[in-house]
Amino acid sequence: MSRFFRPALLVTAVLALLGFGITPSSAATSITVATAIGRQDSSTASVTGYVVGQPTATSTVVRSNFPNDYALALADSATQTSTSSMLYVQIPTAFRAAYGLQSNPGLLGKQITVTGTLAAYFTHPGLKNATAFTGGGGSTDPGDPGDPGDYYAAAAGKAGAQLKAALHTIISQQTKLTYDQVWDALKVTDQDPNNSSNVIEIYSGRSIPKSSQGGGVDDWNREHVWAKSHGDFGTATGPGTDVHHLRPEDVSVNSARGNLDFDNGGTAVAQCTGCTADADSFAPRPAVRGDVARMIFYMAVRYEGGDGFANLELNNSVGNGTAPYIGKLSVLKAWAAGDPPDAFEKNRNEVIYAQFQHNRNPFIDHPEWINSIWP
Fold first, then answer.
1. Residue 29: CB partners within 8 Å, gap ≥ 6?
2. Which of 146, 159, 283, 334 has the most CB atoms within 10 Å of its CB?
């Protein structure tokens, strides 16, 4: 066949002249919700379905009184009620004004198309990191009026006390958990990346079965990194249940830490390689010292005494007892600088934001703000 005669090109040209559009085989095409549920392989896809509610837990989707604009559920039928036939869609900040159900309850029952990554959300078949939403009368332009913008927009250009005040306002917008709900949250936020049946203990670093929660020897329980006696907030909903500073830990190691402040030095702690303690202070293993510091900085900004709880602050002392203070500030700053946020810590922050409390630890996202607030 002559290299100058290509039937496929001729057909394409003729059809184009007749007004028929040709879609290249490489163009993205929409898939159904059922297909998306079966293809949870972290690939990118456009999914078309009907908005059937907002997921609030693995097997719970609400159809009214929407708590926020962070997620929606899609199904192949507008009347679908079974969560097993739904795809849970994470709504990024840029699209919440147009596609969040709290702001747009009229979207319920409308057909839309969302492009993003096919990956679990709320430990359920989902679509995350969306780059486009179309249909339903909404808009996909992140610059549209009403766009909430960057999470930290209100803190832009601020420093010192002004920055602290702005961050407090931002991160105070959160969904509060009960102390019982913390158990379930920690099984997701602290899941071992190499074993989905386990969680990682914060101080010891041990990987332990999620099912081993409890108060027995070698079980794991809920450690308050900001010791709950420092401010006497206990386990009441608020600082006592804030997952940004609650972590899984071995019962014995948790007891050894007790309500000690943080400082260098001391003697080795049993069952916690790299940890040390003395009469008035505790130091976790080096790999998480920065994590601990950033949790403490978060608590000092989040809880300022205006919501019925103590004003939590850092100082440069140890032995703070039941006062609403934790030290040692100079040591915690050094720990944060020496151990910057790693992938596990960043992922944990994202999971808390996306699935549970819907607020972030700003010092994981912007470690440089530590020295701005505490020079």
1. 23, 46
2. 283
Closest CA to 263 of 247, 250, 275, 249: 275
Whether 351 and 221 share a structural domain: yes
Q: Which stretches does DSSP call E strand in the chain? A: 30-31, 44-57, 60-62, 71-75, 87-90, 111-118, 126-135, 191-192, 195-200, 207-209, 220-224, 246-250, 261-262, 267-269, 272-277, 281-283, 313-314, 325-326
Structural domain for 190, as ranges: 153-373
Beta bridge partners of 250: 220
Total domains present in the chain: 2
Predicted local confidence at residue 332, as pLDDT = 98
196 and 82 belong to one structural domain: no
CA-only gyration radius of the chain, Å? 25
Structure tokens at 270: 């049993």
CA distance 51 to 122: 17
Residue 214 neighbours by CB under 8 Å, 6+ apart: 220, 221, 251
Contact 43, 118 (CB under 8 A): yes
d(CA 64, CA 101): 9
Running along the chain, 375 residues long, what does each successive block of 10 average in pLDDT? 35 35 41 94 93 94 92 92 96 90 89 93 94 68 37 90 96 94 96 94 97 93 97 94 98 96 97 96 97 98 92 96 96 97 92 91 95 96
Sign of CA dihedral 189, 90, 62, 79: negative
Q: Is the pTM of this model over 0.90?
A: no
CA 229 to chain centre: 26
Domain with 92 in it: what CATH number? 2.40.50.200
